[in-house]
Amino acid sequence: MYCLILMRYRGPDPREPFTPRWNLNGEPAKGRTFGLPLCGQSPHYSRALTDLVQECLYEQPGHRPDLRELKTRVQNGWRAAFKADATLDAWDDFLPQPPPPPPPPPKLKPQRCKGIRRNGKACKKKLAADEYCGQHQGQRP
Ligand SMILES: [Zn+2]
């Protein structure tokens, strides 16, 4: 999310912690964090979200929001965005196209038995898959 906010490939530099001098989601910073200051860096993401990402980058794990808090705050942000008539991102653009339907099975000609009857005439009994009916199995070449 840090990279998306800044539209850059590289993540935060772990060698350069800093202490934000601004409030993160209404509270003073709890300690040092990493990366570039995200405050006001994105025209696409809310200040609440960029602050939340900055909080997730706190040096001390205990200062970071836990999973439950993260979920609650993301849900609250989601609801607030919908109340403000936010438009949905076209996530479908990132999903692969569904596979095309499989081709229909080829139409099979009804097969006829290739066996020869005792009277010398062709059997021609209709068959589903085999070339010889049960009576003429022994005539296979
Ligand atoms: Zn037959």
How would you concisely characterize the structure shown here?
This protein is mainly α. It has helices at 2-6, 47-56, 67-83; strands at 111-112, 126-127. It folds into two domains: 2-87, no CATH class; 108-141, no CATH class.
What does the model show?
Helix content is 23%, strand content 3%. It is mostly helical. It has two domains: 2-87, no CATH class; 108-141, no CATH class. The longest helix has 17 residues, at 67-83. The radius of gyration is 34 Å and the shape is rod-shaped. The relative contact order is 0.10. The mean pLDDT is 88. Residues 113, 115, 123, 125, 132-133, 135-136 line the site of zinc ion.
Attribute tags:
two-stranded antiparallel ribbon; mainly alpha; 141 residues; rod-shaped; 2 domains; single chain
